[in-house]
Amino acid sequence: MNLSSLFLNEQPIAGLEVRDTCLRLALLSTPGGKPQGAQLRAVAEENLPVGVIRQGVLHDPRSFAQSLKRLRARAGARIRYVILSLPADVVYSRVFSLPGTLDAHQLDKTVRLSVGFLLPMRLEDVYLDWERIEGNGRNEVLLATTPRVIVDAYRQAADKAGVNITAVEFHPLSLTRVLDVPDVQARLYIMPDASTTTFSIIQGRSLRFCRVVPNERLAAGKIGEEIRRLRAFYESQRGPVADVVDLSRAQILGLVAAHPLTRESSNSWLVSVGAALRGLIPRRHDVAISLMAIGTEEAHALQKAKALAGFWSSLTVGLVFLFTLAYVGTWAVTGSLARAAAKQRPLLTAAAGPSDLANLEQRAKDFNAIVRAADPILQSTPRWDVLLDDLKARLSPGITISALTITSIRDPITLAGLAVTRSDLNAFRQKLVDSDYLTDVALPLTNLELTASIPFQFTFRLTDSLRLTPGSPKNQ
């Protein structure tokens, strides 16, 4: 039986936006499992103490981890995986135009060779990735790179908060997914922050240019001068810029603009929701930039392997405990049988007189009582293979199992996981109730306000049919 197919369904991935002043988290749900119908399930914001992050660089990992824990609690949802979106301050990005005859392998080799001459840092000290840009009839790629120490600091702090980072990108790249533009013309978007302002030129859904300017250089009306300079530079290299758009008046998806949780300050949630939208892409299809040691697909596979290892560890500990009890009980009974037989052997070989008959009869009764006591122990160990096969047969694509907790044979067993929709959860409950091997199936009345991505925790007991020894009529 392949347990990986039973316990490794896709987990929801949230978008985590990092700024000098705050953290923002967004989690989406997909009723019916269709990304096109994505809905905003939860958003949360946590202000950071001054100095925890400065110009995109993490300086206080401990405070960051504590703030991230509080942020998860504010979201009110069980979040383990995130797409991390960093400020553009710490990322170098550039568009390269390359010969159209290059295949994917040649593109990767050419990009890495080219960037080696452009970066002020050694390639060994940075994380580097690239993605193809569609349109313009050219073979173009967007390259991005950031120092390893910056990403590693965030990843280690997130681990301490119980959060796994699946991919790392930067704010303008996240923004491209939430814009709702009617054409593929290039537009210059202005993203102000506490200490810097980011200027991004986006064409369709592709990032073409990015520049970060300290706010002190934009004082006294100099922002207009900066816009004219950037626009002239881009138009001389790439083509016309149709419009200059402040982020507060950008056309964005109704997913953000119309939702009660984000409607009042929708532009504040664009980056985190954009990162969360990436979380809906199947990992095997995610070829967007990820500034990590391994690609997005490998990172997700590693996290799933860690989840499987944790499940096996919990299940193994429980089963070893139960089997140890059964072994100890059987060993004790067997030892008693052996000692009783050793005591009776001389009596059976010697001629017993009338005075010994009563004592011999009592010893025989004790021996029979021990045999009767051993039989329930030998037959009480459940058929675990039958139980796991039955649970697997009752799963559906809308159900993900995260834990199976067994403390003893007689105590209730706990089955925890996540249901895509309320109907998936109700259907799974009925399937458990219909099982011949489970009884007293119970589901606590929690999370009733949720209609999608619903965490659950069933409890149930095993029926006597699972404790029958092989060869009995029920198991033949």
Overview of the structural elements:
By secondary structure, the protein is of the alpha+beta class. It folds into three domains: 4-186 and 250-293, 2-Layer Sandwich (Nucleotidyltransferase, domain 5), CATH 3.30.420; 321-380; 384-475, General secretion pathway protein M, EpsM (Gyrase A, domain 2). It contains twelve helices and 18 strands. It has helices at residues 4-7, 61-75, 104-116, 148-160, 171-175, 222-237, 254-257, 270-278, 296-349, 354-380, 384-393, 422-433; strands at residues 13-18, 22-29, 39-47, 53-54, 57-58, 81-86, 92-98, 126-133, 139-147, 164-170, 186-192, 196-203, 206-214, 241-246, 399-405, 413-421, 438-442, 452-462. It has a five-stranded mixed sheet. A four-stranded mixed sheet has the order 13-12-11-14, covered by helices on one side. A four-stranded antiparallel sheet has the order 15-16-18-17. Helix 2 (61-75) crosses helix 4 (148-160) and helix 9 (296-349) runs antiparallel to helix 10. The two termini are 19 Å apart.
Q: What is the string of helix and strand elements?
A: HEEEEEHEEHEEHEHEEEHEHHHHHEEHEE
The biggest beta sheet, please?
5 strands, mixed
What integer value in Å does the Rg equal? 32 Å
Fraction of residues in helices? 25-40%
Low-confidence stretches: 1-9, 468-476
Number of H- or I-type helical stretches: 12
Please, how many domains? 3
Alpha carbon gap, first and last residue: 19 Å
Shape: elongated
CATH architecture tag of the largest domain: 2-Layer Sandwich
CATH class of the largest domain: Alpha Beta
Average pLDDT across residues?
80
Lay out the secondary structure.
Blueprint (H helix, E strand, L loop, with lengths): L3 H4 L5 E6 L3 E8 L9 E9 L5 E2 L2 E2 L2 H15 L5 E6 L5 E7 L5 H13 L9 E8 L5 E9 H13 L3 E7 H5 L10 E7 L3 E8 L2 E9 L7 H16 L3 E6 L7 H4 L12 H9 L17 H54 L4 H27 L3 H10 L5 E7 L7 E9 H12 L4 E5 L9 E11 L14
Helix pairs in contact: 2-4, 9-10
